Amino acid sequence: GSDYTKVLTYTDPTDQHTFWKFNKLANGKIHIQSPLSNDSLRAYTNEPNCSTYQSTNDAFKWTLEEFAEMPTTLYLAKGQAYALPGEGTWTTSSPFVARILNGQVIGNTEGTATLTQTVNGTTNVYIVVVKPIAVGTYNIYNINTNQYLTMNSNGFCAMQDNPDISCVWTVIINNKTGLYQIFNAQSSKFLKSNFTVVSSTADASDSGTLWNIVTHTDGMQIQASHSNDSLWPNATSLYCGTYQPDNNSYHWAFFKS
After folding, report:
1. How many other C-beta atoms can be found within 10 angstroms of the C-beta atom of residue 199?
2. Contact 183/169 with Cβ under 8 angstroms?
């Protein structure tokens, strides 16, 4: 934040000292101005600290570059693109699994590939794991019961014969962990495992909303990350649950909604 001349740090994001406006110049660069004084952010080559002042020489002209973070192991959903850091050149060990195109790595098919970045003769190696389900909106269908996953009015996971708006789910992935979250469009809540009963929550940080999706020959297994128990349509209960056996009651198909 700007203290009129000094540039300091503030912990309160509502403090007016932390507000800035960006003015684009004719040459494509920008001035970063504090609304408190209209002074511009400047960098000194002979001092350790930035400051603000009214002059408009080169010390006050900035460019913005997008920052691309690259984790050591990157998880991608099938078909998902991820921006690579711009330095150096990138190669992939398996374009069939993950290809590189226009500065992005794109998950093609489920599997693992190695990405190599070469910068000034130095190489950095990263692992890319492509997961089986693409990010998108789906109806989720149980292969054994021939029913669709839904969210009832009490916020519990249940099953029904025909899909409607309550059966529409948005699947997203965390690129650092490879875990999915499954979001119900009608209720605006995430599918949540309570270890046995499956309910819902609006809290995206709840660990019960994190799921692994595992490929089997006859469908997908949806496993709660915190217990490794699998989602199943509990026939003896009004609600779905999670449990440990692995049979076709636990296998699901994802149909684009």
Report:
1. 19
2. yes
